[in-house]
Amino acid sequence: MKISNPTSVVITFSWKIFRHRYSTNPNLTTIFNKYVDKTNVYSWNSIIAELARSGDSVEALRAFSSMRKLSLKPNRSSFPCTIKSCSALLDLQSGRQAHQQALIFGYEPDLFVSSALVDMYSKCGELRDARTLFDEISQRNIVSWTSMITGYVQNDDAHMALLLFKEFLVEESGSEGDGEVCVDPIAMVSVLSACSRVSDKSVTEGIHGFSIKRGFEGDLGVNNTLMDAYAKCGELGVSRKVFDGMDERDVISWNSIIAVYAQNGMSTESMEIFIRMVKDGDVNYNAVTLSAVLLACAHSGSQRLGKCIHDQVVKMGLESDIYVATSIIDMYCKCGKVEMARKAFDRMRGKNVKSWSALIAGYGMHGRSREALEVFYEMNKAGVKPNYITFISVLAACGHTGLLKEGWHWFKAMKHEFSIEPGVEHYGCMVDLLGRAGRLNEAFELIKGMKVKPDFVVWSALLSACRTHNNVELGEISARKLFELDPKNCGYYVLLSNIYADAGRWEDVERMRILMKNRGLVKPPGFSLVDIKGRIHVFLVGDREHPQHKEIYEYLEKLSMKLQEVGYVPDMTSVLHDVGNEEKEMIIRVHSEKLAVAFGIMNTVPGTTIQIIKNLRVCGDCHTAIKLISKIVDREIVVRDSKRFHHFRDGLCSCGDYW
User: Fold this and answer.
1) Three-class SS state of 612
2) What is the pLDDT of residue 138?
3) For 450-470, what is each residue's pLDDT tens digit?
4) Using CA atoms, how far apart are residues 100 and 423, in angstroms rounded to an integer?
5) SS3 for 613?
6) Are 291 and 327 in contact (CB under 8 A)?
């Protein structure tokens, strides 16, 4: 690498660090002046190393600067910790200047110095410079290789990290047992981190087998990373086996398995592990643990446990932790309590883009799009720059209430005003927005003009709109694309079957049923959950397994009579069987949503809000019926389906029948 004006490096480096860039510490200076021999480079090296190890990178660089101002010549031990301090601060400018000085004094070829430089350039995003240095190292050790492999992982080039590891194994095999290039647990952690990003089961299994052969199966760091690698491949069962087989666990181990379950929608398992962690008492949970449990509460809609975790956050003084506070906002939004989410948001001292985006998304999913946009405007006024995720939240919010004009405006503004190129998620939101508004041809033209390849999210948005607006032609086009992109997802077959049923094309409905059977696809059953006094009750369509099923059906009969009195007419279009109207009415009368609502009303005191979670989109008939039931029993009924929240009150729904 080329170095310019080497004679000015020392002065520039010292002056910039001392005068402009870093803080001073009077107490440290007093102690240093009193007890340390300032004329001895080894004393300075000790101070620099101690400051770097304690995490005070600013003062470590200041100490190095002060040493150079005294015209002391650094030795090989002066540079590694100085360069590591630059890495910790992501200070590329100071890192380059440290590199220049290492070159001037002849220490660049030193293995520890060069490895630290590779790490510094990688952390600062200068991967090309890191690789150039790495290739110039004549005699690499395991630290050098690990630094470069880690650099690729940190810069989202996991495939290159794995290729480099293969190169390392070739060199290791030719080293004739030289300990300097033998793989160690730290290197294995970096390689497994690459496996997590590649998400290839066979690769992960291969590296796992390799780590066992090398005797690392008992290493804590290796096992912690291995859990995540298997989870990213969808192998949650293997992740759990790794966890259960660990002789020693730290807080990272517990956090990893809790997060694995929470991120994959397995909230019950996540909560059970957390409870086990608390009962064992061997490891204290921390902010990361609570964030993961809050995510589990958000997915399951468990407001009761979520509130308990929030209380614990307050007791531990973690409300100022921006990640925990954002998790609290997300939890309350997904548990149907957007006002409580807003209160938690307003109490935050510092807010980042994730906090703002979470609240925008929360208002959006509750159909409060105007308020979502108001938060977005507040965010811009506060000087927080929106990111890729923020615009997904904004466009999704517009889609929930049909704000077509606003949606188009912000979709175009992404690139022109904020230099963010729209991705498939943004196109998916726009297709959904246009589709809900009945502008299917425009949605189709938008897809055809996409700069990125449309994925299943985009095509499924169009297919859903075709179901809503009974467009068979575009529905078939969308379905064919989806059968290619995601052939194992039976939801697309069901949606197309719905479109055929609405059009009265029963032969095509039967054809889709046979196609699903031949491909071994089974429609997941629709179910509804209701939480009564901390206990989750699950209902399927026509469910007679619940202990109170007789009472539930009797109460439903009474409700049916009252519904008819207020003008309720069953909507038969959600029944996909070519049967008579009387039989269709019997089927829709016992949908899981209705059973859950009836049970909730029966088992709570008058005035209590009933909260239901449905795993699929709520059907049109249930939507109409629950609106009327909310007025008949004078209750608020909140239903969270796969798309959004519906707040039923006094015969109306918060979605305005636009969903």
Assistant:
1) strand
2) 86
3) 989 999 999 999 999 999 899
4) 41
5) strand
6) yes
Using only C-alpha atoms, the chain has a radius of gyration, in whole angstroms, of 30
Are 86 and 120 contacting, i.e. CB atoms less than 8 angstroms apart? Answer: yes
Please list the ranges in the chain whose pLDDT falls under 50.
1-24, 578-579
Tokens of 15: 């002056």
Beta bridge partners of 528: 539, 614
How many CA atoms lie less than 13 Å away from 195 in the CB half-sphere? Answer: 28
> What gap in Å lies between CA 468 and CA 475, rounded to an integer?
10
3 state DSSP class of 656: coil
Q: Residue 176: phi, psi to the nearest 5?
A: 55, 50
In this structure, what token pair is assigned to residue 157? 């080039």
Distance CA 448, CA 563 (A): 46
CB 607 within 8 Å of CB 635:
yes
Tell me the two tokens of residue 121. 């350039």
What value, to the nearest 5°, has the Cα angle with vertex 56 and ends 50 and 59? 85
Q: Report how far residue 112's alpha carbon sits from residue 584's, in angstroms, rounded to the nearest whole number.
A: 76
Report CA dihedral (598, 603, 604, 607) to the nearest 10 degrees.
Answer: 30
The span from the CA of 497 to the CA of 493, in Å, is 6
> In whole angstroms, what is the distance from residue 166 CA to residue 160 CA?
10
Q: Which residue has 């309590």 as its token pair?
A: 337
